[in-house]
Amino acid sequence: MNIYILDRLSYRIFGKYVTAKRGEYAELSKKLLQARINVPFDIYVSRAYFLSILFSLPLGLLLYFLLGEVFTSFFGSVLFLMIPLFAFFSGFSIYKLLLLYPSFEAKLRGRKIDIVLPHAIALMHALSRGSNDIISFFEVISKNKAIYGEVSKEIRSIPIDTEILNIDLRTALKNSAANSPSESFKNFLESLSTIITCGGNLVAFFLTKSEQYRLKALDENKAFMDTLGLFSEIYVTGFAAGPLFIIVLLVVLGLVGGTKYVLLLGIIYLFIPGGSILFILFLSSITEGTGSNCPAGNEDGYREKTRNPVIQKAELRMKIYDLLKNPIKNLIELPERVLYITIPAGLIFFAAATYNNYGLEFNELVYKVDDFLIFTVFIILFPYMLLVEAHFRRIKKISDNFPDLLNRLANLHESGLTLISSIKRLGTSNLGILNNEVARMNTDIELSGSIVDAFRNFGERVNTVSVKRVVLLIENASRITGNIKENLVIAATDANSLKSLEEERKRFTQMHIIILYITFFVFLYVIYSLVTQFLPEVPGVSSNAVQEIVGEGIAFSGIDKQLYVRLFFHASILEGFFSGLVAGQIGENDARLGLKHSVVMIMSAYLLFMFIPNNFTG
User: Phi and psi (nearest 5°) for 344?
Assistant: First the structure.
């Protein structure tokens, strides 16, 4: 464990005090273990004390700056006495949030474990048909973190306890169960310990547990989606509707006092994009490993390929030939490649279109280049968006049809054909998008003579969790049992279970995406009303200077209307772009798939402002 300078300093100051009260932090210590936060409780609490004190005064001053005028009428000239109260409130909030975080993280990990657990048990079920070495089952799962997510982290301690620390298997299972945040995983390990002690039938046990937890995973997936829906509502309230309310409030207060312009800039250019990016990163962390069609990444469990150099050179020539023959197909397989073309093209367009405006003042320059900047973003992102959609659409079709391929393969193999002959027979049938993949599998078999290599290459080409789990199951179970047919049936059942979870998620998140759209268009409507109905009635000036107009006891400040229209335009564009990315992260577990929503929202905002008259005068 690495102890950073911050932890050393905080522990030196608060360590003895926290250690003396270790009894009060027993539950926190347990949650730290369950959340896999590798920090002792005394260091973690000392860190919480130090950070809460460190940031209390700066945050207190920020609250004083933001909310000072609200309390002016109550406290008058002694308002500065509120600073210690704001600082105490800020520090206390930071401390409590830091102490609650391990419990929140442990709860999320528990739900992730419950969702993935049936697939890990399905692999154990397949492996148990040819071996009783349970430790080897755990080793396979622990080496494939990208496929089995949090279950892999939970299981990893068992091989370590038995092989490195020389602890017996029953005790290792007991220790792992005690430190797990998932009740389902605890019950599974306890039941497994009982079966091992009594000498029960492992195959029947894993089959029963696989079915039991597969049904339970549907409920846990629904609970997880409820949590995701809650965060979606938080985004709508805090980062979509919230900025709109603050913008309207700051505009009105700015007209009365003329001092809120800087805050308005901070909300538009810092809070909306910065808060949205942090929210996307947070959603990505809590949904990691719960999607079936998300990229699986590199697997530690896949062995390095040892092939003939002649074959490797032939494959390289084949890749070059495929790239030249069908560049669009290669771009679909890796959409990021198109950015090497679109980014230079967009920058060249922007430079050429705005070249004559570089001698203007900054404010005038912004007015002139705004539209070209948006066109540049479209030039860069629109082709990338189309390729990303094509890439994931292809992957989804493959994942949806893959269980059917496995069922057909099992039926052909059961009819008496060898597995190689069954795969060749599949090449003559109509499998839609999978026809090409089956042909490539047949090519791999002819080149290497290995069915396992053919499935592994298929998994690497598709590179999704759902397919790679099946490939890993077939590879390891075939190596241990040699019974391909039953393994194919187990793999098909597991793939169907993943498909059900993904379909349920899609149905659930559609409503939240609609809510994001509604919120954004409400945002546009309010902005449009401000620009077309409110600003024309406000006295204006031709610059940022403040002009006092007194009417009916209220002093108004004249404003630069063109400047405020431009700020509202930027706010709409930024809100649309980032709301689209959040919609992609919520609905399809990948912010890149939200680019299509971003394009729709940006175009809506741009077209709306095109119809707003640009003839404000002081």
Answer: -60, -40
Residue with tokens 């496929």: 147
Are the CB atoms for 68 and 80 separated by under 8 Å?
Answer: no
In a domain, 522, yes or no: no
Instruction: Examine residue 588 and state whether it is found in any structural domain, yes or no.
Output: no
The phi and psi torsions of 295 (rounded to 5 degrees) equal -60, 140
| Residue 617: per-residue pLDDT | 42
Neighbours of 65 (CB within 10 A): 12
CA-wise closest residue to 593 among 300, 228, 293:
293
Q: Which DSSP helix (H) or strand (E) runs through 347?
A: helix 339-354
**C-alpha to C-alpha distances, 215 to 184, 187, 189, 488, 532, nearest whole angstrom:** 12, 15, 18, 21, 55
Q: How far is CA 149 from CA 123, 154, 236, 395, 489, in A?
A: 14, 9, 29, 20, 23
Number of domains forming the structure of the chain: 1
Specify the DSSP class assigned to residue 559.
B
399 vs 401: CA distance, rounded Å: 6
CA distance 284 to 112: 13
- The dihedral formed by the CA atoms of 408, 216, 396 and 484, expressed in degrees to the nearest 10: -30
**pTM value?**
0.77
Rounded Cα–Cα distance for residues 526 and 572 (Å): 11
In a domain, 585, yes or no: no
491 secondary structure, DSSP code: H
SS3 429: coil
Domain containing residue 489: 309-495
322 token code pair: 């495929």
Alpha carbon separation from 464 to 202, 297, 410, 471, 582 (Å, rounded): 29, 8, 22, 11, 21
Tokens of 341: 């073309």
Q: Which two tokens stand for residue 509?
A: 């998140």
Token pair recorded at residue 135: 């430790």
What is the mean pLDDT, run by run of 10 residues, along the chain of 618 residues?
73 89 88 88 91 89 69 59 83 92 89 86 84 85 86 88 86 88 90 86 86 80 80 86 81 60 82 90 76 52 52 71 74 86 92 81 76 90 92 83 80 77 79 81 80 80 78 77 70 76 80 90 89 74 44 50 84 93 88 92 91 58
CA distance 564 to 363: 12
Beta bridge partners of 540: 559
Q: Is residue 317 part of a domain?
A: yes
CA 388 to chain centroid: 16
- Three-class SS of residue 214? helix
Q: Are the C-beta atoms of 582 and 279 separated by less than 8 Å?
A: yes
Residue 548's beta-bridge partner residues?
A: 557
CB 490 within 8 A of CB 126: yes
**Tokens linked to 212:** 């039991």
